[in-house]
TrEMBL record:
One of its GO terms (molecular function) is oxidoreductase activity. Residues 1-194 form the Heme-copper oxidase subunit III family profile domain. Its EC number is 7.1.1.9. The gene is ctaE. It comes from Actinomadura rubteroloni. Belongs to the cytochrome c oxidase subunit 3 family. This is cytochrome-c oxidase. The keyword Translocase applies. One of its GO terms (biological process) is aerobic electron transport chain. The lineage of its organism: Bacteria, Bacillati, Actinomycetota, Actinomycetes, Streptosporangiales. It is a multi-pass membrane protein. It is found in: Cell membrane.
Length: 195
């Protein structure tokens, strides 16, 4: 119950970021009277791949939850035999996919700073772009840390209990939430102003 309440507060936080984004977008006018938005050459193909990987990580995370609920912590077959995977393998894969997403976002930031000169303080667009995507990236990083804690518990626990399975489920709630928020951000930032 506490997780749901906390995620509700996170929803309000991201709703405020969306409100900031749309407010600044609506009042930012260029020198010639046109909207100076988006103000950067965003890498849609990279972001689309990143989005796909993050969304698929929700699927792998949920597969881990199914294994956690059935008490299957580790695999009982070869590593390439995906049907025999347990919670650990699915959560490691989810972790790697999330880490790839964060690395892709960092690469895009580097590209925007070096190629377009877009920084947090360079323009209103830079401010809202980095605030919205940056706070989301921090939340993804928090989810990655949570995956590591759950994985650590699978090795530290002498036996797998309902409480440990519940911790895996709670982490999945958070991960699914972060993924849904990104879908909204991707649609708003990358697709709304598509030229």
């Amino acid at each position: 119950m506490g997780t749901i309440v906390w995620l509700s507060s996170e929803l309000m936080f991201f709703a405020a970021l969306f409100a900031i984004y749309f407010t600044i977008r609506s009042v930012t006018i260029g020198q010639d009277g046109s909207h100076a938005w988006p103000g950067a050459d965003l890498n849609l193909p990279l972001s689309a791949v990143n989005t796909t990987i993050l969304v698929l990580s929700s699927v792998t995370c949920q597969m881990g939850v199914f294994k956690a609920e059935s008490g299957k912590v580790g695999r009982d077959g070869g590593l390439l035999n995906v049907k025999r995977w347990g919670l650990r393998e699915w959560y490691v894969l989810s972790f790697l996919m999330g880490a790839y997403f964060v690395a892709g976002q960092a690469y895009e930031y580097y590209s925007l700073v070096t190629k377009d000169g877009l920084t947090l303080s360079s323009s209103a667009y830079g401010t809202v772009f980095y605030m919205t995507t940056g706070f989301h990236g921090l939340h993804v990083t928090g989810g990655l840390i949570a995956f590591l804690f759950v994985l650590g518990r699978t090795y530290a626990a002498k036996r797998w209990t309902h409480e440990q399975a519940t911790s895996a489920v709670v982490v999945s709630y958070y991960w699914h939430f972060v993924d849904v928020v990104w879908i909204g951000l991707f649609a708003t930032i990358y697709l709304l102003d598509l030229h």
